[in-house]
Amino acid sequence: MIQANNPALRSWIPVPENSDFPIQNIPFGIAQLPDKLPNAVTIIGDTVIDIWELADAGLLEETKIHQSIFGHRYLNDFLKLNKADWRAVRNRLSNLFNEENQELQGNEELRKKALYAASDAQMLMPIKVGDYSDFYASKEHATNIGTMFRGKENALMPNWLHLPVGYHGRASSIVVSGTEVRRPMGQMRPDPEQPPIFGTCKLLDFELEMGIIMGQGKPLGERISTTEATDHIFGVVLFNDWSARDIQKWEYVPLGPFLGKSFASSISPWIVTLDALEPFRAPLAKREVPILPYLEVEGNKAIDINLSVEIQPEGADPTVVCRSNIKHMYWAFEQMLAHHTVNGCNIEAGDMIASGTISGLTPDSYGSMLELSWRGSKPLPMSDGSERKFIQDGDTVIMKGHCENEDVRIGFGEVTGKILPAHP
Ligand code: CA
After folding, report:
1. Domains (ranges, CATH) in the chain?
2. How far apart are CA 309 and CA 371, in angstroms?
3. CA 134 / ligand 1 centre spacing (Å)
4. What's the 358 CA to ligand 1 centre distance in angstroms?
């Protein structure tokens, strides 16, 4: 067992019941703390911990990692190290905050410099995203979308069961949770009998996804196998891939999504390490057709993560519109990474790979409004009595995720984003 995952561990920092951040989590992020420059942080319960400050006091010396790495604006240089280094830091932090350890617990002066109430920490974009690719790995989502646009018989394209379908996305517009998102404008063709128009997106949607944050990959021309993939993945975040359905529908043939996706995607600020998620591995869905050897995996490669989406209209309480789980995904992250690099494409530390919309088997587990409202034919009731077919101005979309077994709960916090009216 990875030392920091031991369910018997308890911290001297209070952890409220049902917290996403017990001592077994130790996620990584970047925060702006009062009167400090942005630097690396972790969280236990509701206490944000300044990792740079601990390193500066010599408490991370045994990890042999230079303290300056924790003082950078982004985590990318930390991600360039390897799994043994990430694990050493997480294990050491776990050890420092163990209830029996006095090194920091007994040092009031340092505690004052290193520990902050979560409400005093402004979470920032944790990585400088290099490249971003988005997959389409939920069979239920692909089937739903295919059924809507091509009919039930032709729902899945002939390639879908043989390879994880993906496209190259836009890295520059990935923003951290809490960033307001402006409704896009663009070209669309709402009436197929009339010429296209320029206007405000009317069919604004979310996509419930998760993304992996990459550690160092391999040089151009080399491949990462499914077995090696696990060691190259640093961690996982919640990912809202905002989508303008009307812009997307008109533009996507034949090269795929473009401006209907690139106006914004939002991520949760805490990167939960793949190590912390290992106790929640689950069997991958059974293959429906034989797959090529480079995509085969051994052992449990799905992850059991409960996910939810809420819509909060301006001034009203949020309404849960979706409950899903990423364990339903047909393709594992390891397979996406092996496929991504099978042609020799290089991956670099700080790259992101998103799963694609995570829809489950039942209509209340669909991961987008397009599916939940079935193209707008089934409006969803909100707590204030209004209805939603798609997302309206002033709405905040909130996605949450957590893993849970009888011993421990590991959560992701949330990714939120409020929609602002379009710039006319
Ligand atoms: Ca997507």
Report:
1. 3-124 (2.30.30.230), 132-302+324-361 (3.90.850.10)
2. 13
3. 6
4. 9
All residues with CB under 5 Å from ion ligand 1: 134, 207, 241
* 166 CA distance to ligand 1 middle (Å): 9
pTM: 0.98
Q: Which residues does 275 contact at the CB level (< 8 Å), separation at least 6?
A: 2, 4, 5, 83, 86, 87, 90
Q: Can you give the length of the chain in residues?
A: 424
User: Could you please report the per-residue DSSP string of 13-24?
Assistant: S---TT-S--TT
Bond prior to 421 in cis (omega within 30° of 0): no
Query: What whole-number distance in Å separates Cα of residue 135 and Cα of residue 124?
Result: 25
Provide CB contacts within 8 A for 112, sequence distance 6+: none
Q: Which of 66, 72, 141, 232 is catalytic?
A: 141
| Rounded-to-integer distance, Cα 348 and Cα 232, Å | 10
Q: How many angstroms separate the CA atoms of 185 and 198, rounded?
A: 7
Token output for 362: 């039942």
As to burial, measured by CB atoms within 10 angstroms (0-12 exposed, 13-18 middle, 19+ buried), residue 339 is buried
Q: Is 141 a catalytic residue?
A: yes
Q: Which single residue is written with the structure tokens 């043994």?
A: 84
Residues 6 or more apart whose CB falls under 8 angstroms from that of 161 comprise 287, 288, 289, 291, 330
Q: Rounded to the nearest whole angstrom, what is the distance from the C-alpha of residue 146 to the centroid of ligand 1?
A: 15
Instruction: Give residue 220 CA to ligand 1 midpoint distance, Å.
Output: 26
For residue 356, the CA-to-ligand 1 centroid distance in Å is: 4
pLDDT tens figures, 86-130:
999 999 999 999 999 999 999 999 999 999 999 999 999 999 999
Dist CA 81 CA 66 (whole Å): 11
pLDDT tens across 165-184, in order?
999 999 999 999 999 999 99
* Angstrom distance (rounded) from CA 300 to CA 22: 24
Residue 424 has a pLDDT of 77
